[in-house]
C-alpha cells in the first residue's frame, strides 16, 4: 500500500456493477487514497449498498456517504444505517447531509420545506440517537429508544452551497463537502464564509475539514477531453442545473445556463453542447490529460483551500477510473512524471496522454482513425444488395464465385469512398461539429487529417476500380456503366457541384442505387444477364437502406436547415419525416410479403419476420423522437443499420435455403 504525501479521495456514483465499484475502491486503497465517497444518484441505485460492498473488500480506506438527505432517508433511518456501516468498517465512516434536489423530490411527491432547519434538526436527532439516548418526535406516543449500538464517532459534513447552509456548517458540522461541478472561485468564497462564521462562534479553523467532488473527464489532450465533455448528456445536465449563485460566483451570466437548460429539456443535446463554451467547462469540470487534471486538483487545494479533493470520473468506466486513480496519485505525491530522460520536478505538470503506452504507434492510431471514418457499421448497406444478387444467382445454379467476390469487394470499395467523402464535406460545410450525434468524428477530433481521409476514400474507389476492371474483362461494357453510376452517385452525394443530398434528391437516388442498381448489377456481374424479377426482390433491400439515410436526415433537420441545406426531411418537416421513416421500414416487410405472394421470393424469405422485435424497439424510439425526445433518435442511423443487418441475414438465409428446397 502506497503512502501519499497528502490526502486525496475517490468519488463514485451508485451505478454499474457493484463488484466493479468495490474493486475500484480496493485499488484506491492499495494506491494510498484517503477515502472513497459514494453519493445519491437519484433513480439509479442505493449508495449504501455500494459502500457496504466496499467496506467488505477494504480494510483501511475511509467510506463517505454523501450527499444524503433527510427527505428520502428519515434521520432515524440515517442513524440506523450509519451505525450498521460503522460496525462493518469501524472508525472509517463519514456522513454528508444535503438538502436534496427539489425537482427529484417533487417527482417522488415528497414535500420540500425549510431545508436548512430540516438538516439542522436532523443533525441533532442523529447525534442524539448515536449517543444511545431516547428521541421524542411525536408528543402523542412515547419517545423512541435506539436499539442499535452507538457507533464510533462519525463526522457529519454539510453538502449544500446556499449561505444559510454555510452558516450551519460553521455552527454544527465537522466538515464541508463541495458538490460536483463547483467552480474554484465559488469554493474559495464558500470556504471563507464558513471559516468566518466559525471564528465568530469560537471554533478554530482546524475543526472543520473541507472536501469536494471534482468531476473529471480524460482524453489524450485537453482539446479532445473538452470536445468529449460537450457530447456527454450527464455533463450537459450538470451545466443546465447550475444555480444562478454558482454561475455568478464563477463569473458567468445565468442566461447562458438558461439557454443550455432549454436545449437539454428538449433533449437537443447537440444544440446544448454547442452552447457550452470551453471557459464554462473549465470552470466546473476537470478536462484533460492525467497530469492536467492533477494540476487542476492542486489548484483547488492551494487556491481554494480544499483539504481533500475527491476526484470523480464523469464516465464510470474502467479506463476513466484508472485515469482518475493515476491523477489522484500524482496529486497526492505532489509530483508529476516528466518525459523520459528528464529529472523529476515538484509542482511541474506535463500533458501525458491518458493510458500512455496502450495507445500504440502512430500508425496504429491512424489506422483507428481510418477505421472510424469509414463507418464499418454501415457496410451492410452495400454488402446486402450484392449478396442478394449473388444469392438469386446461386438459387438458379448460375453462381460464379470469383466474380461474386469481385462484385462484393467493388461494392464495398464504392461504399467506403462514399462514406468518407460524405464526412469530409459535412465537416467542410460545418454541418458536422464536435457535438453532432455522429458515429464517426475522426476528422473533427484530429484522429485523421482531411488529407488522410481523402487517401482512405480514394483507396476505396481504387479498390472498386480494380474490381471493375476484372469484372469488365469477363462481362463487358455494362460493368463500366454500372461502375460510373456507382462512383458518381457516391462521390457527389455531398460533394460539389451536385451535392444531391442537399437538393432533396438523396432518398430516391439512394433507393435506386443501393436497391435495384446494386442487386441487378451484382446479378449481372455473376451471371452476365439481367432479370426483371430482381426489381421486386430489390424493393425491401432498397427501402431499408433508404431508411438508414432518411433516419440520418430526420435527426439532422435542425442542423441542415440552419446551414441552409434542403434535404427531403427538411422540406417535409419533422412530423412528416417521422411517418416517412415508419413507412420505409414497414415497407420492407410488406415488400417481402408481396414478393413471396407473386413467387419472386421463396416462402422462406418470410424468415425476415423474426427481426420484428428489433423493428418494434426502433419504432418505439422513433415515436419518442417524433414527440420531441431527440435523444431517442440520436443514433437512429446506427439502429436502422442493425435492423438492416438482421433483416438482411435472415433474407439471405431464406434465399439460400429456399433455393435448396427447390
How would you describe what is shown here?
The chain has helices at residues 18-30, 47-57, 75-88, 102-107, 115-130, 163-172, 184-200, 222-229, 233-240, 244-250, 254-265, 269-275, 278-284, 290-302, 318-333, 362-373, 380-395, 401-428, 450-475, 477-491, 506-527, 534-555, 557-562, 568-572, 574-597, 612-626, 636-661, and strands spanning 9-13, 35-39, 62-68, 93-97, 156-158, 175-178, 209-218, 286-288, 308-313. By secondary structure, it is of the alpha/beta class. The chain has an 8-stranded parallel beta barrel, surrounded by 7 helices.
Q: Quaternary status of these chains?
A: single chain
Helix amount: 55-70%
Distance between the termini: 71 Å
Rg from alpha-carbon coordinates: 31 Å
- Main pleated-sheet profile: 8 strands, parallel, barrel
How many individual β-strands?
9
Strand line-up in the sheet with most strands: 1-2-3-4-5-6-7-9
Structural class: alpha/beta
Distinct helical segment count: 27
Question: Rough shape?
Answer: elongated
Mean of pLDDT? 87
Low-confidence stretches: 336-353, 355-360
Proportion of beta-strand residues = 5-15%
